[in-house]
């Protein structure tokens, strides 16, 4: 099931290894899996989404994953790890090797079969669901899935192995508080963070004539016709609620209506130039837009290319999304998988990953070990205050999604 339109990560056959990895990784992409679902529209959209993903209504797996003690009883290291990840989401040298994985193999004796087979959260879920529902191997011991509708389904359907916290001492010691006990996986029962990103505001200070600090700057008549907003039903409403002082996670239908009214006024006053997909970043870099809702990785890519753009988490707050390491419940080598999960939280390994990936590492102690420019970047090492001022997305039941759609769809479709 294709869900991401022009923002999909490229397939392996289309990857140009000489292109900026921050561009090709497209980590703005994962959250869009839910976006098309919400844009599909009401009950019809829900039915189409569930049919495409092979899910019937609110059907649950007949048997959930065992508790951690039961699952891990008798499990032993095998010396093999089959790791499925997204393209260009692992440190890579000029010869195409992965230095941190080579170090892991040397340190643990576990051989890694590394596969860049995840192109899209929705497509991957649809691909592996039949095997997991039948309790069959999917050929992967470790996968990377973004928080959101698909991770929720992996968990709700019992497709992920419950983690043994005693096997994750390095995670316990080094994980950033922002990725401990996340709202989408309380107690890190099934996941640990791989990398994260922010939704905030990108701007060109030469165009705005001043620093941008507030969500309200996106509504300033002084910037009329030069403001970009996301044309989706997820980032747009959630960030608006944050800007209004409403926590999206606990928001109500009344809150949604208030946010929609604010966005409608912004639109009707002509302040918004356009509701954008991934193309907003080109418009911002060209000067067509002066400021816009933005994904942190996009702004980093433009900065690396010499553009005078800035990214800011508004003083009211921003949005935080996370890609997560997970073990399928049918994994053949789960001990090897959880060994890698913990190993990735070694500061020296996290630094190797951060230097290449250039998104938010879950290991703050990696900061002294990375390139100096990266260490000073909000986009990879936001402060504790920055992260404290971020929110997760509103989780919606199917009934709530229909209402949410009805309230917010008219904004971007007008």
Task: Quickly describe the structure.
The protein is of the alpha/beta class and 414 residues long.
Note the main attributes of this structure.
2 domains, 18 helices, single chain, D-Maltodextrin-Binding Protein, domain 2, disordered N terminus, 38% helix, alpha/beta, 414 residues
Write up this protein.
- The protein has 414 residues and is of the alpha/beta class.
- It folds into 2 domains: 5-197 and 321-391, 3-Layer(aba) Sandwich (D-Maltodextrin-Binding Protein, domain 2), CATH 3.40.190; 199-319, D-Maltodextrin-Binding Protein, domain 2, CATH 3.40.190.
- 38% of the residues lie in helices and 14% in strands.
- The chain contains 18 helices and 10 strands.
- It has helices at 21-25, 32-40, 42-53, 68-72, 99-108, 121-133, 149-156, 169-174, 205-208, 235-243, 253-268, 280-286, 296-304, 334-343, 347-357, 372-375, 384-388, 398-413; strands at 80-84, 111-115, 142-146, 191-203, 227-230, 272-276, 291-295, 310-312, 318-326, 390-391.
- Strands 1, 2, 3, 4, 5, 6, 7, 8, 9 and 10 form a 10-stranded mixed beta sheet that branches.
- Helix 2 (32-40) crosses helix 3 and helix 11 runs parallel beside helix 18.
- The longest helix has 16 residues, at 253-268.
- It is globular, with a radius of gyration of 21 Å.
- The protein starts with 20 loop residues before the first helix and ends with a helix.
- 47% of the residues are buried.
- The model is unreliable at 1-64 (pLDDT under 50).
């Amino acid at each position: 099931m294709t869900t991401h339109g022009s923002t999909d990560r490229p397939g392996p056959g289309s990857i140009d290894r000489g292109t900026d990895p921050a561009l090709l990784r497209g980590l703005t992409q994962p959250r869009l899996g839910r976006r098309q679902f919400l844009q599909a529209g009401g009950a019809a959209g829900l039915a189409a989404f569930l049919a495409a993903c092979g899910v019937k209504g609110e059907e649950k797996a007949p048997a959930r994953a065992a508790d951690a003690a039961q699952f891990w009883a008798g499990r032993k290291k095998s010396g093999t790890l089959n790791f499925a990840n997204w393209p260009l989401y692992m440190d890579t040298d000029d010869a195409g090797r992965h230095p941190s994985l080579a170090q892991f193999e040397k340190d643990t004796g576990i051989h890694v079969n590394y596969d860049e087979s995840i192109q899209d959260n929705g497509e991957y879920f649809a691909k592996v669901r039949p095997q997991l529902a039948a309790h069959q191997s999917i050929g992967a011991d470790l996968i990377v899935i973004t928080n959101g509708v698909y991770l929720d389904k992996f968990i709700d359907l019992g497709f992920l192995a419950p983690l043994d916290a005693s096997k994750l001492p390095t995670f316990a010691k080094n994980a950033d508080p922002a990725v401990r006990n996340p709202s989408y996986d309380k107690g890190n029962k099934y996941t640990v963070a791989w990398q994260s990103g922010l939704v905030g505001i990108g701007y060109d200070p030469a165009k705005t004539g001043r620093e941008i600090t507030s969500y309200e700057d996106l509504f300033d008549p002084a910037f009329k016709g030069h403001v970009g907003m996301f044309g989706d039903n997820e980032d747009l409403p959630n960030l608006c609620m944050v800007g209004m002082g409403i926590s999206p996670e606990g928001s109500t239908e009344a809150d949604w209506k208030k946010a929609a009214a604010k966005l409608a006024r912004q639109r009707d006053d002509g302040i918004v130039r356009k509701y954008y997909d991934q193309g907003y970043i080109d418009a911002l870099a060209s000067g067509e837009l002066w400021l816009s809702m933005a994904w942190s990785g996009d702004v980093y890519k433009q900065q690396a290319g010499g553009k005078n753009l800035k990214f800011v988490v508004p003083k009211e707050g921003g949005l935080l999304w996370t890609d997560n390491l997970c073990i399928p419940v049918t994994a053949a080598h789960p001990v090897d998988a959880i060994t890698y999960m913990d190993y990735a939280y070694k500061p020296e390994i996290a630094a190797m990953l951060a230097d290449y990936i250039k998104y938010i590492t879950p290991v703050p102690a990696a900061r002294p070990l990375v390139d100096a420019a990266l260490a000073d970047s909000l986009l990879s090492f936001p402060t504790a205050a920055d992260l404290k001022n971020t929110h997760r997305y509103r989780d919606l039941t199917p009934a709530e999604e229909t209402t949410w759609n009805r309230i917010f769809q008219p904004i971007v479709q007008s």
